[in-house]
Amino acid sequence: MEILPVSRNSYKALLCIEAGIASVSEISDLTRIPKDDVKSAIALLNSLKLVETKGMLAFLQRKVSADGVRALSVYRKVYGSDEDVLTVEEKLAEEENDGS
Q1: Count of H helices and E strands in the chain?
Q2: What is the 3-state secondary structure (H, E, C) of 4-53?
Q3: CA 12/CA 77 separation, integer angstroms
Q4: CATH code, 8-85
Q5: Beta bridge pairs of residue 61
Q6: What is the rounded CA–CA span in Å between residue 22 and residue 13?
Q7: What's the number of CA atoms in the CB half-sphere (13 Å) around residue 18?
Q8: DSSP classification of residue 85
Q9: How far apart are CA 64 and CA 69, in angstroms?
Q10: Residue-wise pLDDT tens digits, 58-74
């Protein structure tokens, strides 16, 4: 965690981005994290190069980088059993199933 300081909120935002959710408000709604905190989490993820952001406003795209995939794997062991993280993962799975 000292080498790659990712908070639980940043981890949840990273999970959402991995699932294809790029909008701050959608991430906020799904995770119940205040929008300003989501913005801070995304800024951190960008600065750590765990997320790549392209485009502007309505055309904004975010995707998890290769380092971000590795961070997800590592932090899944740290936060993966936390109740709020499990809730986010369940919601993401439901959305994926609804979209299929």
Answers
A1: 5, 2
A2: CCCCHHHHHHHHHHHCCCCCHHHHHHHHCCCHHHHHHHHHHHHHCCCEEE
A3: 13
A4: 1.10.10.10
A5: 54
A6: 9
A7: 21
A8: H
A9: 6
A10: 788 899 999 999 999 99
Asked if 13 contacts 41 with a C-beta cutoff of 8 angstroms, the reply is yes
- The string of pLDDT tens digits covering residues 15-74 is 999 999 989 999 999 999 999 999 999 999 999 999 998 887 778 889 999 999 999 999
CB-count exposure of residue 91 (10 Å: 0-12, 13-18, 19+):
middle
How far apart are alpha carbons 70 and 33 in whole angstroms? 23
- pTM here is 0.89
Do 66 and 51 contact (CB within 8 A), yes or no? no
The domain segmentation of the chain, as residue ranges, is: 8-85
Strand partners, 52: 63
Cα gap 47→42, rounded to integer Å: 9
